[in-house]
Amino acid sequence: MNRKRIRASWPARLRRVMIKRKAAPFLIQERILARRTHQCPFCHRHIEEGQLEENLFVCPECSHHFRLHPRERIRFLVDPGSFRETDRDLTSLNPLDFPGYGEKIRRVTNISGLNEAVVTGIGTVEGWEISLAVMAFQFMGGSMGSAVGEKIARTIRAGVRLQLPVVIFTASGGARMQEGIFSLMQMAKTAAAAAQLEQAGLPLFIVLTDPTTGGVTASFGMLGDVILAEPGALIGFAGPRVIEGTIKKQLPEDFQRSEFLLQSGFLDRVVERSRLRSTLAFLIKTHTLPGRD
User: What is the pLDDT of residues 144-158, one digit of tens each?
Assistant: First the structure.
């Protein structure tokens, strides 16, 4: 796909807020799940839950894309009743006996309703079968520990085994430092799995969502045959403050936003959430060889 320059029509800088729950402070951006009314952090409009859900959790006033829970993302993407989750019980251990790590996992599991920072499985999009992984920023900032890396790798290898295209939605703050070198090794593992998919002649479609940073960006996140992103998503490796402190220069306001990366040639397209399903269906169809459907 040719990388075309398009004029950004989305907010260049989106404000984030910290939501404090009774159980523990947890960054879930602008939404508290199951709340009846939400406030857009950019235009401050109050939006009813039903209206927001009907609009795929995109602000009807300013088009700000709220972060999605992976279950919501899957429900909006795949054909009804087609998703079969895989490796649901695969969770991280505490290989380094990091203090408080096990308790933090249990607490975040109770808050998010997930037992890891990625949900994987097999489903169909407009009748086309795919191997799918959806990362969850709601679970420890979507950090990639050993279980997350293993689930991503298994998702890609399932594509090889079943001769299916692979779709991965990223949302991550990077490697999970509580697991040290075990976490960093997942970068090589997932990249190797992506290479196996390429050798099998099967496509890898990556959708970068807000935020995608650190080790995920530095590994499988930028290895897709086609790389899409949602509008306004923060995408990068190190944070802008770290970069500014290193190079001693002020960065552009829209630095590391998806529109900036598109203009710089790192992305193939920025796609509104309402068009993601049809866009992915088109890509899956056009990249599937006859006899492989």
Answer: 999 999 999 999 999
Helix (H) or strand (E) holding 162: helix 146-162
Number of domains in the chain: 1
H helices, E strands: number in the chain: 9, 11
Gap between the Cα atoms of 240 and 135, Å rounded: 23
- Is the peptide bond prior to 211 cis by the omega test (within 30 degrees of 0)? yes
With respect to residue 44, please indicate whether it lies within any of the assigned structural domains: no
- Distance in angstroms (rounded) separating the CA atoms of residues 61 and 123: 32
Beta-carbon neighbour count of residue 60 at 10 Å?
Answer: 14
Whether 55 is in a domain gets the answer no
How far is residue 22 CA from its own chain's centroid?
26
Is the residue at 56 inside a domain?
no
CATH number assigned to the domain comprising residue 128: 3.90.226.10
Q: What is the dihedral of CA 80, 129, 194, 234, to 10 degrees?
A: -30
- Answer whether residue 118 is part of any domain: yes
Quote the tokens at residue 125. Answer: 């999009």
Domain that holds residue 127: 68-286
**Inter-axis angle of helices 273-286 and 70-77, to 10 degrees?**
60
Whole-prediction pTM: 0.87
Q: Which of 111, 144, 93, 106 is nearest to 19 (CA)?
A: 111
Two tokens, residue 214: 């650190």
Tokens of 102: 């096990």
Measured over the CA atoms of residue 80, residue 234, residue 265 and residue 187, the dihedral's sign is: negative
Residues 6+ apart with CB under 8 A from 91: 105, 115, 116, 147
Q: Give the pLDDT confidence of 38-79 residue by residue, as tens digits.
A: 889 889 999 998 899 999 999 999 999 999 999 999 999 999
